[in-house]
Amino acid sequence: MQPSDHYRTEKDPMGRILVPKTAYYGAQTQRAVENFQISGRRLPRSFIKAQGIIKASAAKANMQLGMLASDKGKAIVEAAEEVIEGKWDDQFVVDVYQAGAGTSQNMNANEIIANRASEIMTGSLESYTVHANDHVNMAQSTNDTFPAALHIACVENINEQLLPAIYNLQKELKRKSVEFMPILKSGRTHLHDAIPIRLGQEFSGYAGTIESVYHQIEDCLDGLYELGLGGNAIGTIINTHQDYPQTVVTEICNRTNAPFRAPESMFSYMQNRNAAIRTSLALKELAVHLIKITSDLRLLASGPRTGLAEITLPTLQPGSTIMPGKVNPAILEMTYMVCCQVIGYETAVATAGTASQLEINVMMPVIAHTVLDSIALLSNAIPTLTAKCISGIQGNEVICKNWMEESLSLVTGLSPILGYDLASQIGNEADNKNITIKQVLQERGILTPELENAIDPTGMV
After folding, report:
1. For residue 338, what pLDDT is reported?
2. What is the pTM (predicted TM-score) of this model?
3. What 8-state DSSP symbol labels residue 213?
4. CATH tag for 407-460 (out of 1.10.287.70, 3.40.50.2300, 1.10.40.30, 3.40.50.150)
5. CB 163 within 8 A of CB 143
6. Interaxial angle between packed helices 142-157 and 364-388, expressed in degrees from 0 to 180 and rounded to the nearest 10
C-alpha cells in the first residue's frame, strides 16, 4: 500500500508502515492493530483516563526536575489532559488481547499524546516535534505505568461507583429487614422445614453479609493506592531522576484527590499484581454472596400458586412467549448472570497472576480488562437490583403464617420438656397423619398451657 490522501508513512525501530492520515496514533499502534485483531474489545474509559493522568503527571514532574523542556512538557500536559477528558478515546484502538505487559497500550497513549502535542506546538500533526518515547514516555516503562493505570482506574471506579452501589443495597436490605420483622415464618435448612424465624431476620442476614463484603472491598483500596511509578522496567529506577518517583506520585495525588503512595517494595510491585488479585477475589466473594441472596429471593418468591410465595417481587415485564400472564424474577436472574461472569473473571485473574515470572507479570492487559469489567458489571447490576427488585419486595404474612403452622419443626420446642425421643414420636405422628404438632398433642390429651407455649412460634424467635 502506498501513501495517499488517506494514509501517511510512519516509522519505528522495525521500519516504515502506513497509518491512517487522520490518526493521532503512530507506527507501533498500527502494528498492534494489524497483529491483534482478536476480540474487538478495548480497555475502558477509566483506564484511558488513568493513562492520561499518568502522562500529564510524568511530564509535569520531569519539567519540575529539569529533565524535560518546558515548551514540550506543557504541550504534553495539554494533550494528556485532553485524553483525561475523553477527547481522543476513539484513537485508543489496541485490542485487550495484545502483546504481553501492555506495551502496545502504553505506546498507543504515548503516540496519541506525542502527535497531539506536536500539533499543539506547530499546528501540524506530522511535525513530530514531540517524541513518543523520548518525551511522553520519559522516566517511564510500560512495566510501571500499566499497573499504575490499573490501580488508578480501580480506585476511581470502586470509590465513585461500586462502594456507593453496595452501600445503598445494604441500606435497602436493612430497611426491608425492619419492615418485615413482624412477619413470622418457617426457617429452612437443607431446603427442609426448620424452626421459626422472622422474615426480617432473614433479610437482616442479607444486609449483614453485604455490609461485611463492603468492608472487604474497601480494604482492597489500601493495596491499590500503591503506585510503583519510577520503578521503570524492573524496579531499579533506571533513566529517571532520583526525586521522580515521589514527585510524580504527588502530582497524581493532586489530580485525583486520592492518597496514592510509593510501594514499600518497588521490586515486589514490579514482580506481582497483588492488589489486583486481592481485589478480584473480593469481587468474587461479593458475587458469591449476591448469588446466595438472589437465589433465596427466587425461592421465597416461587409460585405464585405452586411455590413458597412468601414474598412478592415487583412485576416488571412478561416472562414467557407461550404462557400468558407469566412473570419471571428477571432482575434476580440478571444479577445471577453478572455474578457468574465475575466469578469466571476471578479465575482468569488468578490464572494470569501465576504468570508472574522473575521481574514482571506479562499478563497485565487481561488482568486489567477482567478486574475493571467486573467492577463495571457489579456497579451497574447492583443499583438495578436495589431499585427494581429489593425496594419493591412485599412480604406475604398470611402465607408465611400458614407454612409456619404446618412446620413439623415446631416440635423442637417440646424437646426440653418431653425429651428428644418423645418429641420425635410426636413429630413423626404429625407427619404420618398430615396434621399439626398441636393437633397431635390435642389427640393425645397432653396439650397443657406449658406445651402450647413451647410450640408458640413467637417464643422461638
Report:
1. 98
2. 0.93
3. H
4. 1.10.40.30
5. no
6. 0
What is the pLDDT confidence band of residue 3, given thresholds at 50, 70 and 90? low
Answer whether 346's CB lies under 8 Å from 285's CB.
no
Q: Compute how many other C-beta atoms are within 10 angstroms of the C-beta atom of residue 336.
A: 18
Tell me the pLDDT tens digit for each residue of 362-402. 999 999 999 999 999 999 999 999 999 999 999 999 999 99
| 455 three-class SS | coil
Whether 7-138 and 407-460 share one fold: the answer is no
Domain boundaries, the chain: 7-138, 144-395, 407-460
Residues 200-224 have pLDDT tens digits of 999 999 999 999 999 999 999 999 9
Please provide the size of the chain in residues: 461
CA distances from 90 to 42, 124, 363, 366 (A): 10, 20, 24, 20
CATH 1.10.275.10 matches 7-138? yes
Yes or no: say if 417 and 453 are a contact pair by the CB < 8 Å rule: no
Catalytic residues: 190, 320
Which amino acid would we find at residue 357? Q
Tell me which long-range contacts 450-454 makes (C-beta under 8 A, separation of at least 24): 450/417, 451/414, 451/417, 451/418, 454/413, 454/414, 454/416, 454/417
Q: What is the pLDDT of residue 241?
A: 92
Q: What pLDDT digit, counting tens, does each position of 116-133 carry?
A: 999 999 999 889 999 999
Give the CATH number of domain 144-395.
1.20.200.10
Could you write out the DSSP letters of every residue in 288-331? Answer: HHHHHHHHHHHHHT--SSSS--SEEPPP-S---SSSTT----HH
Tens of pLDDT, residues 38-77: 999 999 999 999 999 999 999 999 999 999 999 999 999 9
H/E element holding 186? strand 184-189
C-alpha 360/C-alpha 33 separation (Å) is 24
Rg of the chain (C-alpha set) = 30
Nearest to 370 by CA among 398, 389, 350, 355: 350
* Pairwise CA distance, residues 118 & 67, whole Å: 18
**C-alpha cell read off for 179:** 419492615
Q: Which helix (H) or strand (E) holds 229?
A: none
What pLDDT sits at residue 1? 52
Asked if 104 contacts 34 with a C-beta cutoff of 8 angstroms, the reply is no
Using CA atoms, how far apart are residues 364 and 378, in angstroms rounded to an integer?
Answer: 21
Residue 26 near residue 10, CB atoms below 8 Å: yes
Residues contacting 330, CB < 8 A, separation 6+: 316, 317, 319
